[in-house]
């Protein structure tokens, strides 16, 4: 039976710190619902009511476009080893680009990456835990390195060109504001 909380507990914060994979769900009022798997060293729990995650450059930019239209976001964690658990954090998110106030303070929470595209700050309104007994066991082997290698080869200029070509609009044509809020001279 699931339980709900108004904030993360210490035990839940510890569980999150141990996870190698999380899922982010966003949706505008209309159009496509997006669920994205995320990994690597890209998530921090700042306190019981706030999670920050680093969005690295990728082929789509749905989360940014959706949050600009409707700031609701869900982040889900699953136990793939140990005791079964599914943990969801629900709330309102803000997207920060390189040119935004707050970027400089928060980007330092994460390892440096040429591919750092946005930061998302989730203000938690509700947390839900559920049993997770149908989630299979999986063994973590290692993080993939292809994205980091690709972004390093691109360099800052190449990444900015990629954003211009591939990251300005969502699947539904919603603006991501990446150009006006991120590009540097």
From TrEMBL:
Pfam families: PNPOx_N. Residues 8-131 form the Pyridoxamine 5'-phosphate oxidase N-terminal domain. It comes from the Bacteria. InterPro entries: Pyridox_Oxase_N, Split_barrel_FMN-bd. This is Pyridoxamine 5'-phosphate oxidase N-terminal domain-containing protein. The lineage of its organism: Bacteria, Pseudomonadati, Pseudomonadota, Gammaproteobacteria, Cellvibrionales.
């Amino acid at each position: 039976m699931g339980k709900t909380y108004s904030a993360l507990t210490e035990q839940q914060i510890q569980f999150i710190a141990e996870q190698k994979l999380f899922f982010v769900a966003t949706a505008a009022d209309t159009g496509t619902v997006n669920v994205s798997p995320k990994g690597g060293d890209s998530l921090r729990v700042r306190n019981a009511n706030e999670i920050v995650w680093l969005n690295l450059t990728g082929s789509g930019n749905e989360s940014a476009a959706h949050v600009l239209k409707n700031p609701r976001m869900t982040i889900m964690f699953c136990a793939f080893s140990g005791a079964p658990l599914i943990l969801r954090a629900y709330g309102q998110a803000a997207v920060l680009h390189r040119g935004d106030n707050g970027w400089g303070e928060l980007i330092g929470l994460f390892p440096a990456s040429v591919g750092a595209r946005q930061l998302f700050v989730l203000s938690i309104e509700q947390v839900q835990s559920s049993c997770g007994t149908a989630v299979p066991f999986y063994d973590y082997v290692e993080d993939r390195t292809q994205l980091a290698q690709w972004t390093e080869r691109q360099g800052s200029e190449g990444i900015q060109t990629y954003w211009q070509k591939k990251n300005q609009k969502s699947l539904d044509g919603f603006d991501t504001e990446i150009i006006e809020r991120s590009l540097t001279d």
